[in-house]
Amino acid sequence: MTSLEEEIKKRGLKVTPQRSKILRRIRENPGSHFSADDIHKYVQIESPNIPPATVYNILKMFVEKGLINSFEINGKAIYEGKVDPHINFMCENCHNIYDYEMGKDLSEIENNVEGKIISTNVTIKGICKSCLKDLETSETSLMH
Ligand SMILES: [Zn+2]
Ligand SMILES: [Zn+2]
Q: Can you tell me the mean pLDDT for 60-71?
């Protein structure tokens, strides 16, 4: 049993080949952000008949058990292996999502509200570095 499969078991879930495959895909690409559709397509390579609902339920279960993180952006659920609090920056042009560390000490927020943080969901929309460059180049070429 791999360490990821042990994590599934430790959360009180049954280990199945599909579950470990999905968890491996997400957790072994910590900088990547997937839609349910991305994961469904990936699992379909080996299990062409798997219904999207099965994949969706596995993802939901993993999120509930804290094995993966999910957040919503533009009405779409995104899944990722990075479970520590961080900021997700999404480029409005290429739709890539980049992870950034939170600058603020979270215990400071807890002290301010005199409560406890359970989960965080911070998303920022913008234009990424390479798209900015492309936009600048196309603007300058328009001027000629
Ligand atoms: Zn971009
Ligand atoms: Zn992220």
A: 95
